[in-house]
């Protein structure tokens, strides 16, 4: 009975998790002067598959909302070792996510940023798998994020290859 009540009230967690992830993700990008408008980034050669800047401004908030909803669903589940381990993986990948922008855009460290995003994608995949075992919808909500991380890793790699002198 208590377990069913927790599942019904996942939205209460979402009232905190969604804005928290949105604000933290936005702050990470803003503080590191990420994206177009950054003179260093604007001067780099971009791959042919680089989307326009507005795509990132649309995609990342959507992904952060999905992550917040996914997290809320897991937080609403009863405490267990499985839940704790899944949350550790989730917050580890989230920390890597928030670290990527400063490493890439502020430190201009293209290769280290690529290493971060590859590890991030792996940890996020593990987290999504754990989430799926606990609450299938929570795992599915992470799939668009995983796909975008793979695309972002390809962009990061291509930018590094096209700009060998700019890579730290």
Structural features, described:
Helix 2 runs antiparallel to helix 4 (53-75), helix 2 (10-31) packs parallel to helix 5 and helix 5 packs antiparallel against helix 6 (110-134). The chain has one domain: TspO/MBR protein (Ferritin, Up-down Bundle), CATH 1.20.1260. Helices cover 79% and strands 0% of the residues. The N and C termini lie far apart (55 Å). It has eight helices and no strands. It has helices at 2-8, 10-31, 39-42, 53-75, 81-106, 110-134, 136-141, 143-162. The model has no long low-confidence stretch (mean pLDDT 93). With 168 residues, it is mostly helical. The radius of gyration is 17 Å and the shape is elongated. The longest helix is centred in the middle third of the chain and has 26 residues, at 81-106.
Would you kindly provide a brief summary of this structure?
Helix content is 79%, strand content 0%. The protein is mostly helical. It has a single domain, classed as TspO/MBR protein (Ferritin, Up-down Bundle).
Topology overview:
Layout: H1 2-8, H2 10-31, H3 39-42, H4 53-75, H5 81-106, H6 110-134, H7 136-141, H8 143-162
CATH-level-4 superfamily name? TspO/MBR protein
Count of discrete domains: 1
Residue share in helix: over 70%
The first-level CATH class name: Mainly Alpha
Output the radius of gyration.
17 Å
For the residues shown, what is the average pLDDT? 93
What's the helix count?
8
Which term fits the overall shape?
elongated
End-to-end separation: 55 Å
Which class best fits the helix and strand makeup? mainly alpha
Number of strands: 0
| SSE string | HHHHHHHH
Q: Could you say what the CATH topology is called?
A: Ferritin
pLDDT below 50 for ≥5 consecutive residues: which ranges? none
Strand content: under 5%
- Please state the second-level CATH architecture: Up-down Bundle
Main beta-sheet annotation:
none
């Amino acid at each position: 009975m208590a377990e069913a009540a927790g599942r019904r009230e996942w939205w209460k967690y979402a009232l905190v998790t969604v804005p928290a992830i949105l604000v933290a993700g936005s702050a990470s990008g803003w503080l590191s002067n990420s994206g177009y408008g950054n003179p260093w980034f604007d001067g780099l050669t971009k791959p042919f598959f680089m989307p326009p800047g507005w795509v990132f401004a649309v995609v990342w908030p959507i992904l952060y909302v999905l992550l917040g909803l996914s997290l809320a669903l897991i937080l609403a589940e009863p405490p267990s070792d499985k839940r704790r381990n899944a949350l550790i993986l989730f917050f580890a990948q989230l920390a890597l996510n928030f670290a990527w922008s400063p490493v890439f855009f502020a430190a201009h460290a293209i290769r280290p940023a690529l290493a971060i995003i590859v590890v991030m994608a792996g940890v996020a995949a593990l987290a999504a798998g754990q989430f799926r075992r606990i609450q299938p919808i929570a795992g599915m909500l992470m799939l668009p994020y995983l796909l975008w991380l793979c695309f972002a890793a390809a962009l990061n790699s291509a930018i590094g290859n096209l700009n060998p002198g700019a890579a730290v």
